[in-house]
Amino acid sequence: MTFAKKISDGSALIGVVALGYVGLPLLRSFYDAGFRVIGFDVDPEKVRMLNAGENYLKHLGEGFVSEMSTSDRFEVTDDFGRLGEPDAIMICVPTPLGTHQEPDLSFVEHSADDVAKTLRAEQLIVLESTTYPGTTREVMLPRLEAGGLRCGEDFFLAYSPEREDPGRKDHNTQTIPKLVGGIDDKSGELAVLMYRKAIKEVIPVSSAEVAESAKILENVYRAVNIALVNEMKVILEKMGIDVWEVIDAAATKPFGFQAFYPGPGLGGHCIPIDPYYLTWKAREVGQPTRFIELAGHVNHHMPDYVVQRTLLALNEEGKSVRGSQILVLGLAYKPDVDDVRESPSFELIEQLMALGAQVQYHDPHVQATHKMRRHNLKMGSVDISPESISCYDCILVATHHAACDWGMIAQHARLIVDTRGIMRGRTDVTGRVVTA
Q: Is the confidence at residue 160, as pLDDT, over 90?
């Protein structure tokens, strides 16, 4: 039976490689569409938890996995020798940066090699990982064709960028419009056919390269605009002007302006990383990316600015940073989730510790740190109370979780360094607030 027929009649087996913030919701979307699904992950603990109905991504809700785990249409495995079973395989592996800000495509390459070992006729392979234009054709395709099967004739290959935003309530995987670009026309058509079974709006584009470039543009757009407001924050602070009020004022214009907000730096797997994929690829074709690199420089150095503002704030209180008791509020990179990938809070904590401060953190969604590529703090979240808050020399607001009792913090903190504007307009603040 052809791939198109299996998709049309709902008999296709859908596979997803890497069951993280992108892969797990994607797997659920096709399960909800009535398909049999099989997930692949290298982490045996994740596999155990999912097959037992346990969910390690708390923002998705407790029932997100348990509802699937009792069904015979759901299975998760760490046996990549079974990649020949699914009719479609969507690859959602990380695409981090190397030590010199160069793309690290090792996860993509290993996944392509794993798929190639069992690749068969009438399989569709889709890369969803964010990457530079040309990755699907230049990295994936040669590995998949090495065994003799031809793309567009024997198997099919496409690119469809993930657009996940963990914690967002107004959109989910099924309602976010999906871009799809094939390596060839047939591959694109079949990928669109598949996604339209599970995603409300699917938008075909002319090639995998267009889809790859669109995703990079989306993230560069955000990185550049965040850098702009971060730089404005530094400038306006010197002038004694509230950047948050300025942004709110500018946002009253009904056209030509979209509000972006400053912070202690960039976090998440996309915005701090993806622009560098484009700058690396641009160098290959001899094109400078001065604008993008400048934005990266501004955002990358925001934790340095926040630390300096903290030092000055403590100094004005007659305290040295060495020996000061500092509580960092929020370890996750954004509010109301447990996602700590590339979070600037890690940089803040490490810099302050290096200067001799006694640092703890509180995050209602992140009970303990775990080893990461660049950080291994070995810390746990501390409980907070009016008594404990009043004992710290400085409360550094890094993430504005709704679950934090901001009223209690405002009333009992002696010094608050606020990177998120969470204390703006409050009338119950008893200590000193310094913006950063």
A: yes
- The rounded distance, in Å, linking the Cα atoms of 163 and 222 is 13
* Contact (Cβ atoms closer than 8 angstroms) between residue 128 and residue 162: yes
394 catalytic, yes or no?
A: no
Give per-residue pLDDT as tens, 62-113: 788 888 989 999 999 999 999 999 999 999 999 988 887 889 999 999 999 9
pTM for the structure as a whole: 0.91
Provide the token pair at 366: 């992140």
Q: Taking 90 as the threshold, does the pLDDT of residue 140 lie above it?
A: yes
Nearest to 157 by CA among 120, 130, 126: 126
Question: Annotated catalytic residue: which of 270, 391, 394, 404?
Answer: 270
The CATH H-level superfamily of 217-298 is N-(1-d-carboxylethyl)-l-norvaline Dehydrogenase; domain 2 (1.10.1040.10)
Distance CA 179, CA 211 (A): 6
The CATH code of the domain at 3-210 is 3.40.50.720
Q: What three-state secondary structure class fits 337?
A: coil
Distance CA 348, CA 264 (A): 8
Closest CA to 225 of 124, 296, 279, 173: 296
Amino acid at 219: N
* Mean of pLDDT values over 6-32: 96
